[in-house]
Amino acid sequence: MWSWIRSPLKGKGLPGLDGIRKRKWSDLFGDNDDSEGKGHQTKVQMTCGVHGTTADLSRLVPYMTLLGIVAASFISIVDIFTHVIFEARKRVSVDITHGAVGYVIYVSSGVLLCLLSTLVCQQWSKEAEGSGLPQMKSIMSGFHDKLRNSLAVEALAAKAVGLICAIGGGLPVGWEGPNVHMSCIIAEYLSRIPYFHSLRQDKALRLQMMACACTVGLASSFGTPIGAVLYALESTSSFYLVPTFWKSILATISGAMVFDIWYKTPVAEAFENTTFGPDDYRRSQLILFCLLGTFMGIVGAFFVKCTHEVYQFRKRRLTYLSNRFVLVGVVALVSGLAQYNNELLRIDPRKAINELFSSNAMQLMTYSDVMFLLLIKFPLIAVCVGLPIPGGVFISSFLMGAGCGRLYGEFLRTVFGPSIVPGLYAVVGAASLAGGVTRALSCSVLIFEVTGQISHMMPILVAVLLSVTVANSFNQSLYDTLIVMKVRKQDNKRFPEP
Amino acid sequence: MWSWIRSPLKGKGLPGLDGIRKRKWSDLFGDNDDSEGKGHQTKVQMTCGVHGTTADLSRLVPYMTLLGIVAASFISIVDIFTHVIFEARKRVSVDITHGAVGYVIYVSSGVLLCLLSTLVCQQWSKEAEGSGLPQMKSIMSGFHDKLRNSLAVEALAAKAVGLICAIGGGLPVGWEGPNVHMSCIIAEYLSRIPYFHSLRQDKALRLQMMACACTVGLASSFGTPIGAVLYALESTSSFYLVPTFWKSILATISGAMVFDIWYKTPVAEAFENTTFGPDDYRRSQLILFCLLGTFMGIVGAFFVKCTHEVYQFRKRRLTYLSNRFVLVGVVALVSGLAQYNNELLRIDPRKAINELFSSNAMQLMTYSDVMFLLLIKFPLIAVCVGLPIPGGVFISSFLMGAGCGRLYGEFLRTVFGPSIVPGLYAVVGAASLAGGVTRALSCSVLIFEVTGQISHMMPILVAVLLSVTVANSFNQSLYDTLIVMKVRKQDNKRFPEP
Fold first, then answer.
1. Which of A346, B70, B194, B272 has the fewest CB atoms found within 10 Å of its own CB?
2. Domains defined along chain B, listed by start
3. What is the protein's membrane topology class (chains A, B) (predicted)?
4. What is the pLDDT of residues B391-450, one digit of tens each?
5. A207 neighbourhood in chain B, CB within 8 Å
């Protein structure tokens, strides 16, 4: 029975093994007459990183599975530690103590944690500072050897501890960039296991391994396998190796299983699925969503510009902040002082996003709260991007976009009546601000997976496309801007680091 | 204000314009010292098909938008004609006349329509026969000039009329392959408009245009923009040009708007969104879904093998069927005779799939009906794949997979009790059988978009991955098998066509 199905059209296991298909193509078009002979075999061996061979599979499949499981577990553990510190700090300063004592405890613990984060990065690895996505982007573009320091185990330790302290300390930084970085380091070290040594030899495979690691890191940040695969595709500079696709899917599925198990436990905060009905979006509203997308594109470009300007201003004028500890301490102090009095500013961003996305009226917040949140968070986030601590910006832009979208939706609801569902505008706002900041169209897919709903894809896709286009017509993506900032620093040495 | 945001980090509109990013990369790593000079500009001009330039944009954006709108409109019109003929035939033979008269009318009209479909293909263009996806796959792999006949306007006309007649005539063929083919022909003819002539000159752009057309065709078949983009990515042989991504998204969004408008009218049948609750899938059931995925992989491989064997058998033994009209007439006769007595076999596959996917008990069908449907349809579909009429196999494999999954789910429900939701098993079965037949992991994304739900992604992703892996270990995908069949025919001329 089995052999009957197999003969005479033999297959070879996983997709991407298109050696046979190749041969048939050349048979069909006759452009490779020695396809059955030695010439073809050499060609297949040469490109085995691209097409994969059966011998590779026995190493590749375990490697990708292991990568998914190990990276997702590591990321989940970091997230749980972060959450525990975050909650413990809140409990001690709000529930146990009150008033001035609580205030002092909250602010001082925040400052201490942020200073610890800075110390760890300074001592262990300066490569751990910042988002990590720009470096990983350049590694995926083939600059593997020139950024070897970024993939050291010291960077992993510094990134993990620094991230836990920074988020636990109350700074509004995201974890998706650091997660991607940590995942890439884990991929690098896993490939040093002797059994996987042969995979390291192949340069094409090594690029694919990094792309898969990037995917796993992003997928484990929000539980979004498909969006992460697409994001990695968009981050690649010009050519995407198609066999990376199944490898990424395999790795992210392994990772997503781990994610699934962790995030159904009560220790971690998770995104809730939205429940928009079929009538919550009407075609006539598309123009309103287009306006929102365009506006978010402008805000995204403005945010990138602000980040750049804040960084420049800090370097040129505020020379007394040139010591990294003073700098982080001051920002943490301001952040703690600003956030203590308002409960909303202290909650996990995922909780706030769930609230903003909800299709019903908001329970925790009022409109003025949302506006206050935006006004406080926007400058804080822009300042935090350039700090010498680990931290991304994805989740922050989600939060700001959701806030803007919700406000816009609530405003429209008072104008046009109850046919407007503000939660849907919050979803579109989140996706399109993230698109405006990162310039990735895959933000739309990320949001489908985050909300668990894809039935209202039209407004989200259109708004993200508009937002990315509008923002790109102003300036470059945040990650490219960060690279430019880094280049200036390295080239000119005009602004020496402490 | 605007110029402040823009300076000094200028952007250039749409994503994929990474000329600036390129330059910054080379600044960073110093591997291209003349990047500001002439050498770099030449490089950018050489690769303008890959990166796009501002001059191109004023043509590319209108082209992609137009492609999406025209192709989706054409496909929708074809679909509506199909639907009208399909329904008219049913009304005349069942509602107006009854018994023997109705039977004769149903069968004879079916045979006549199928013969018309064959005639059209024979007279206008033999390239219109079959799915069309294999040819488009080879065009996307760069064999553009060798398959010029496939992109003639005669093939478009034959494909459209032939498809309407074949589906209207009651043959269980799908429309996604023909849609992709029609969309590619439309892309070819749109690029002949003088304004878009410069786009045609660039070989890299031409490949991208075809990839976008393929995406639009698939997206317009089921209303699945993201899945279609991924499917086109997987169909590309080794390297995917990343700038194709935004072009595809732009084209499919334009197409999806048209699709959205048509399919909310009552003239066409559409997929309904599923409404599975958060408790409909529990992690402990994953092993059951894995079993289903594995089984569907075997069924998919078996189906491919059957298709191949039926074709071989027909060519070798049934020489009296070597005339194409006799062949199609006999199949249409058998199909009509078998389908008239059972209402289920006569309904639109989308309606049947909606029924099978529903989270409640089935309204139209009983379990024995589903089993009967599978037993009748499976051999019919396998026979129809090789017929000289236009017709794909995607929707048929969706239907069969949904049927198998539903039966499996209903069986499990009687064993394990009401915690099992058979509709979810139908969804997983549909995705994984489609994966087993086409060997595309993107079938999982297609099903997310078809059902409008992505909250239960884990079982679908795992089952599709398993199914594709298992099926690939037996034989090649259906499309590759079709190519092999075609190659044999062309090479050996052992089985001359009438």
1. B194
2. 56-262 (1.10.3080.10), 283-492 (1.10.3080.10)
3. Multi-pass membrane protein
4. 888 899 999 999 999 999 999 999 988 888 899 999 999 999 999 999 999 999 999 988
5. none
